């Protein structure tokens, strides 16, 4: 009896404790499920430890089961990985306090791709889209000790069966059936590594009464005096509850609202205001100011859930208006037409889990350092991680965001479209608070491919109609409707609007110019064919010596080794580079020099393009070259190689993207001198022109006081050919406008008659490296500095005028300054 009383008392006490725990246990708890994972091949029995997020490839590498995938020809040895199924499992504990909460959801931020997920042996999810976010109610299954298992099927099996169902072939291969990063199936700059695995975080969320499901801070209107805002908040309620929502701006309460909400999901809209708002600007035009915002969900005095974010206030308009030539394509930020300068961004690694926050920081700093104000997240990669957009917001870089469709036609059956619809909702919602996103674009070169790449040939009319209707359903209905419903950001159907086979590519919308490179046209064609907005144009170059050695897995700069050649994914690349080099540059006969020359060639061609686009402002309002970065060590169009080394092009981009640019146009019998001003203020000053020989003798000069309007490009001087005729290979034009200067040569690099002389330099130790001052008695062209020590040169591949000095900083941890150099002069014989 005594025992019974004791047990009842104990039970009562427990109930009391848990009851009062319920009251104080209302706040949301979040538990990462990233630990204790193991994985194995489905048909095998050996389990290996894994770290989540990951991919099978990197887990295998970390367990020493495969060699490093990016060295030599290892790619071809590793294709078996994606032909197999893989299993992942973990055990995780949930503490009593959490377990007592009423609702438990497992969140999978990314499963790649066809996964069956089991919790405590019950199937809780079958996923089929690596870009989607999966949230599963596991309240009925959760225990204090849990067993989570995920089976990944090889993609090919599913893709083959989808292909069978379709009954006809769609371009381009099997990848179109799987909603995962398309570049993994091989691209003209990337290897074939079709990954699988838990590629983004997994976590458990537990809550009692109410939870913030989504927060969207919407800007309704913006003037210098007032920003009218609205918070659109999705709240999930477990039982009718009185709640308070608070919105804080810069840590101060902006609005409080009491709510009485019934069980279920609710969308609550709360207006609030910000007086005298400080605007967000792209970094080249102002400060990218961000406000700290916080949404708090309270019950009595207890915070149930909280969401913190940063938000910039700015207007963004995409102007596509018919005009006398065709149709414009430009962006207005805060009411000002802004010229977009930048590049196309691809995933930074074939294996996303190998991309660390520091890589984002470095690469985006490099974009800012090269005076870029826009990056295009290209459609064959991924919707990037939040950190990418957070940093773009902070650094004042605008983002052109493609949906993840590239260079292919996609299926249009109901389940595929439904899958895409959900993918769009998940990603637009995830990214809509980021200030940097300026445009959502449906796809990369899908329409262009259909109209120009022979994809319609041999198809019946009904088949063509079906394929194009499916295109329209996706890119003309589902995606724009989702963007328009969920955000204020403009939508554009496809990039480019017209391919270069359609004459309108130059007068309407945005263009990709591949006359240069793919069609072998000379660089001058970039100057002649300036469109309204250039979203892609590019030229390949070899990567740094470091990267070449890494690929070869030895100390040689051998660009003809069998291993190295597997890192060149564009079949005709080596010939193309040579062809163009022969046209404009000397062709060195050893690999080390050839690599240097290939970089000068790329910088020369793309620099010409950028400047032609900028001179054509306002007809043209954007210049985004192909491509900023690499996903593995390779020969490609990138301006920064896989290990972060700037090619000559990135230094050139920095010069050619300066807000104020002095640029030259070659006329019939004259040279036009332009000043381009991207700033929002008018400029006045002296335009100083000097014709110099390569020993520094001044042969001619002109000084003019000029006024340059804000956001403009104009020619301010025309130099008649009498001034330079007969001396084209022997002279250089130096042009100054205030602090900006540029050089112009009158002949191709290979025809310059450059003197040979010593390059003098003096090295001084400074805090984080060395400072090197260069001088010479003659013009030294394209001085290239390199070192076996890791480090960064503040300037490189530069031209040094006789009698002037250039100071370069070599940022390095090395104790001694061991640098080597090459100059272009030595290649002129
Ligand atoms: C562009 C891109 C990529 C490709 C590049 C170079 O059109 O959209 O598909 O890698 O050309 O060929």
What structural keywords apply?
single chain; 829 residues; alpha+beta; 6-stranded antiparallel beta sheet; 6-stranded parallel beta sheet; 46 strands; 34% strand; globular; binds beta-D-mannopyranose
Describe what this molecule looks like in 3D:
The structure is a single chain. The chain has 829 residues and is an alpha+beta fold. The chain is built from 17 helices and 46 strands. The N and C termini lie far apart (110 Å). The longest helix has 26 residues. Helices cover 23% and strands 34% of the residues. It has a six-stranded antiparallel sheet, covered by helices on one side. Strands 29-28-27-26-25-32 form a six-stranded parallel sheet. A four-stranded antiparallel sheet has the order 1-14-5-9, with no helix packed on it. The N terminus is likely disordered. The structure holds beta-D-mannopyranose. The site of beta-D-mannopyranose (BMA) has 10 residues, from loops.
The counted number of beta strands is: 46
Poorly predicted sequence stretches spanning 5 or more consecutive residues: 1-23
Strand order of the largest sheet: 3-2-4-10-7-8
Mean pLDDT: 96
Major sheet description = 6 strands, antiparallel
Radius of gyration: 30 Å
Percent of residues in β-strands:
25-35%
Shape: globular
Class by SSE composition: alpha+beta
State the distance separating the first and last CA atoms: 110 Å
Helix content: 10-25%
Helix segment count? 17
Q: Hetero groups bound?
A: beta-D-mannopyranose
Write a short abstract of this structure.
The chain is α+β, with helices and mostly antiparallel strands and 829 residues long. The strands form 13 sheets. A six-stranded antiparallel sheet has the order 3-2-4-10-7-8, covered by helices on one side. It has a six-stranded parallel sheet with strand order 29-28-27-26-25-32. The site of beta-D-mannopyranose has 10 residues, from loops.
